[in-house]
Write a structure and sequence with these properties.
The chain has 212 residues and is of the alpha+beta class. It is built from 8 helices and 8 strands, in the order E-H-H-E-E-H-H-E-E-E-H-E-E-H-H-H.
Length: 212
């Protein structure tokens, strides 16, 4: 598998809400799977609050695959558990030449192209395609929209809970440092093209508030 297709996400983690959005699952479904011990994320704390469940990129791909097996191929729960266990026990780079075949609602894990369709009742999921689909969905969700400009957020799993500009990993303190040094908006935007004038104004407002 060409790792450049997903390597940017290997060290990224996602909240339960984000994982549900990316995998096209309902928040209720992802929570129920966790309660039943059917799909446990890489980071899960003592209670079942969504904010205490953190999903790796691999976890999100797994959720996407399990949901497709359930929704499209009508695979029963016991077979889904088998798929969940198989996905959890293997790393992404192992999936390069693997596919999940569904024959009469039974799951088989084989090298791509190794099973012949003899009765017209076979379907399969290419795992490389599943990884690519999730990576593209994350990129799409991560794109900044007009409503994200000028918004400052904090998340304990993003830059150590430091204040950042929405849908970026750029600390607000960095822009404040530029402002304190006398840099103008154009100079700051040249350093951080993903930012917009509204972001700089939001940082300026925070600086003004801290000086009161």
């Amino acid at each position: 598998m060409a790792e450049e297709g997903y390597s940017e996400f290997e060290n990224r983690y996602f909240t339960a809400d984000q994982a549900a959005e990316i995998a096209l699952l309902s928040k209720r479904q992802i929570s129920e799977w966790h309660k039943r011990g059917f799909f446990i994320p890489d980071l899960s704390f003592q209670d079942n609050y969504p904010q205490n469940r953190i999903y790796s990129f691999k976890n999100v791909v797994g959720l996407k695959i399990i949901f497709k097996l359930k929704a499209e191929f009508k695979v029963h729960f016991e077979e889904l558990k088998k798929a969940s266990r198989w996905l959890r026990e293997r790393e992404l780079n192992y999936w390069a030449d693997q596919s999940i075949y569904v024959i009469k609602k039974q799951i088989h894990f084989e090298t791509s192209g190794s099973i012949e369709n003899t009765d017209g009742q076979m379907a399969f999921i290419d795992l490389v395609d599943a990884i690519s689909d999730v990576a593209n969905k994350i990129r799409q969700i991560g794109e900044r929209q007009e409503e994200d400009y000028g918004v400052i957020t904090r998340n304990k799993f993003v830059m150590g809970n430091e204040s950042v500009f929405s849908k970026t990993r750029i600390p607000v303190r960095v822009v404040i440092g530029f402002l304190e040094a006398g840099a103008d908006i154009d100079a700051i935007l040249s350093q951080y093209p993903v930012l917009r004038p509204k972001d700089i104004e939001a940082a300026r407002d925070q600086l003004s508030y801290s000086q009161k």
